[in-house]
Design brief:
Layout: E1 7-11, H1 21-33, E2 38-41, H2 46-49, H3 59-70, E3 74-78, H4 86-91, H5 118-135, E4 141-145, H6 162-176, H7 179-186, H8 213-239, E5 246-247, E6 249-251, H9 259-262, E7 270-272, H10 284-301, E8 305-309, H11 328-338, E9 341-346, H12 373-392, E10 401-404, H13 407-415, H14 425-439, E11 444-446, E12 457-460, H15 470-479, E13 483-487, H16 507-510, E14 512-518, E15 527-530, E16 533-546, E17 550-554, E18 564-571, E19 574-579, E20 581-583, H17 585-598, E21 613-618, E22 624-629, E23 635-645, E24 651-658, E25 663-668
Parallel strand pairs: 1-2, 1-9, 2-3, 3-4, 4-5, 6-7, 7-8, 8-9, 10-11, 10-12, 12-13, 13-19
Antiparallel strand pairs: 14-16, 15-16, 16-20, 17-18, 18-19, 21-22, 22-25, 23-24, 23-25
Helix pairs in contact: 5-8, 8-13, 10-14, 11-12, 14-17
The protein binds beta-D-galactopyranose.
Residues 148-149, 153, 272, 274, 309, 315, 347, 357, 360 line the site of beta-D-galactopyranose.
């Protein structure tokens, strides 16, 4: 998706200030000063746009869109379904979600509509169609923003009402055809829970069934599917009149919805990024997490994404909310761009005077207009984007490494009871991702469904669940020359969360067989040696045997001392590695660095980067290297290349000094 500009802007709610024309005038004046070229209007504006059923009032919105456009500012127009007006929830209570405990939610808050309710679809369809018709009169509108953070951040994201239960049963009938097939897939003979009628099936809830893994997994799939149906409904309503591109704003690693599935309905992926900067003095783990999210959003379509929301200063919903230290606003904004964003957008333009978000950071505070550090920081980002957009647009990251991150695997591995109760897929994934980040290597983060041909390395940590066809895909990938890296507790269950029997589905490719998995207590730590260094193992140690694989490292202690802990197996034209245990970060860093070198992959500066520093590469007419320093101190990067800095046009070679929290954009000369 290309708008010919790097978009810089954010959520703007002029409807909160309609009685203050002086404020609206000041907004436009300061937007121009801050190099804002795009705002998002209409998020949560339903009660102002439709004041009672059918009483639409768009004048203020239309006036605002035109006025902004005259000043060179585009509008992303949101559908207002993120928050429901009281006339709607009062008149049609069925649009309100029912919680897992069976209670229907009371009106208020947001992100809490029932996505199955025909009434909710009817009412949202009506206003969406009206907005789409209206959009034809306004050139300033460039895209649609569906609802807001679907699935919500204050709930489990699911509705358990009778209509949803009924829809779930229908969904299951379509999937399994017969109850026999469902009973087999869910292993219901266990504890005598064979279903004999579809009506006996109920969503998993704390006071009912929630230990049937197959049910839990299908319910989560259904929730994604149903939410996606709602998303499609909104899109289709707009499409009756408008062909503008659509997006919806995703959230970080949001466990409740499988974003890889939902994104298929969107023209462009966008997301809201709120890292906890300055939580610790060492920003690295936060930088890694944010980088992984940006990377995943880009990888979904392998195209530039949009940073739809970020805070210009503080947030207001964590126990402590640090202000961004000097440099961090620029760095965190450029980090998104480095990983493929073509926009930097904020929540929010101006702080409201009341209610829940009155102290959430905004470009404009309640006081001081444009005379604030935050405002100057934002203007600085706008200026930089405007200056460099010619280089950045039309470029995108094209990594040679892929990592598998998969929602169904996430649900299943953390739902299973064993081998530990605190299995943490995201944390494990991020430890492996961090190894690439520290080496300055871009990766794509994709689900098990993506095509893998073309990647030189594929890493799949804690890949517990294999969907149908996955093992075959990996077998082909390795046979044709790829390097595949996977870990303990991989290939354990199929797509129904039923354990594989016989052998590991990739036994021949990996050249190993798994026997036991140990989840040792703290006093039973184990270790390995790798390239002469000793590394500690973590919370899980699998006991495996070689079936042709070469042992690179063996356990040093306990009854399984000498058993393989890291193996390498040549298969066809490629190689497969198995990491049998959880390892400390240092091992992962050394291990992955080695595999990358072996595959001929280097970071774009061809150097060892200092701690807290990374690179990302956007390939284009000119390849752009984003060199980012997440240390609050100056660091030196030594490199054999010669580079031009995109902003200053300065030539640098040999030594590149980075200021605290600095991001340089470099092209090789
Ligand atoms: C987002 C949400 C915004 C705003 C923001 C505050 O999750 O989409 O509307 O609430 O958080 O951080």
């Amino acid at each position: 998706m290309e708008f010919g500009r790097m978009l810089h802007g954010g959520d703007y709610n002029p409807e909160q200030w309609l009685d203050r024309p002086d404020i609206l005038d000041e907004d436009i004046r300061l937007m121009k000063e801050a190099h804002i070229n795009c705002v998002t209007l209409g998020v949560f504006s339903w009660s102002v746009l439709e004041q009672s059923e059918g009483a639409f009032c768009f004048e203020w919105l239309e006036e605002m869109i035109d006025r902004l456009y005259r000043e060179g500012i585009f509008t992303i127009l949101a559908t207002p379904t993120g928050g429901m007006p009281h006339w709607l929830t009062e008149k049609y209570p069925e649009v309100r979600q029912v919680q897992a405990d069976g209670r229907r939610k009371l009106p208020g808050k947001r992100h809490n509509f029932c996505y199955t309710s025909p009434k909710m679809r009817e009412m949202s369809g009506k206003i969406d169609r009206k907005l789409a018709q209206m959009s034809l009169r306004h050139e300033g509108i460039i895209m649609w923003h569906i609802s807001n953070e679907m699935g919500g951040n204050f709930s489990d994201g699911a509705c358990h009402c009778e209509q949803c239960q009924e829809a779930f049963r229908e969904w299951l009938k379509k999937k399994y055809k017969t109850l026999e097939a469902l009973n087999r897939a869910w292993w219901t003979v266990f504890w005598s829970h064979v279903y004999t009628d579809w009506t006996q099936i109920h969503s998993p809830v704390p006071h009912g069934e929630n230990l049937l893994h197959g049910l839990n997994l299908d319910w989560r799939r259904f929730v994604t599917c149903q939410m996606t149906e709602f998303l499609k409904w909104e899109i289709a309503s707009l499409r009756e009149y408008s062909s503008l591109p659509v997006t919806t704003n995703f959230m970080y690693f949001f466990k409740n919805l499988d974003y890889y599935k939902m994104q298929k309905e969107l023209d462009v992926v966008s997301w809201d990024s709120y890292p906890f900067w300055h939580k610790e003095k060492d920003e690295t783990s936060m930088a890694v997490k944010a980088a992984a999210c940006h990377t995943m959003m880009r990888s979904m379509k392998k195209e530039p994404f949009m940073l739809m929301e970020s805070t210009p200063s503080v947030i207001n919903w964590r126990i402590n909310n640090p202000v961004k230290r000097p440099g961090m606003h620029m760095l965190s904004s450029m980090q998104a761009v480095a990983h493929g964003s073509d926009t930097v957008q904020y929540f929010q333009w101006r702080k409201g005077r009341g209610s829940f978000e009155k102290f959430h950071g905004a470009v404009l505070d309640h006081k001081n207009g444009g005379s604030t550090r935050t405002f100057r920081d934002v203007a600085g980002v706008g200026e930089r984007l405007a200056k460099t957009e010619g280089l950045i647009l039309k470029s995108c990251n094209k990594p040679e490494i892929a990592m598998i991150f998969d929602w169904e695997n996430w649900w299943a591995v953390e739902d299973a009871t064993g081998p530990r109760l605190d299995m943490d897929y995201k944390k494990t994934f991020l430890q492996h991702y961090r190894a690439f980040w520290e080496a300055g290597l871009d990766v794509d983060i994709v689900s098990m469904d993506y095509e893998l041909t073309g990647y030189r390395i594929v890493a799949a940590p804690l890949n517990y669940l294999y969907r149908k066809g996955y093992a075959e895909k990996i077998e082909k990938y390795v046979r044709e020359g790829g390097t595949y890296i996977t870990t303990y507790w991989s290939g354990i269950v199929d797509e129904n969360d039923l354990c594989f029997t016989g052998e590991h589905p990739l036994e021949k490719v990996l050249g190993i067989c798994q026997e036991e998995i140990d989840a040792p207590g703290e006093e039973f730590g184990n270790s390995i040696t790798f390239h002469g260094k000793v590394y500690q193992t973590g919370n899980l140690c699998e006991v495996i045997h070689s079936k042709g694989a070469q042992t690179i490292s063996a356990y040093l202690e306990d009854f399984y001392a000498g058993a393989p802990a890291v193996t390498e197996n040549c298969y066809g034209g490629g190689k497969a590695y198995y990491l049998a245990a959880e390892f400390e970060q240092g091992f992962l860093n050394d291990f992955y660095r080695g595999r990358a070198l072996e595959a001929g992959i280097e970071n774009p500066l061809r150097t060892h980067l200092p701690y807290g520093v990374t690179t990302a590469l956007r390939k284009g007419e000119k390849d752009l290297i984003f060199l980012q320093n997440f240390n609050d101190s100056r660091v030196l990067v030594e490199t054999p290349g010669r580079y031009e800095e995109a902003d200053s046009k300065m030539i640098m070679s040999g030594e590149i000094w980075l200021n605290p929290f600095e991001c340089k954009i470099l092209t090789e000369v």
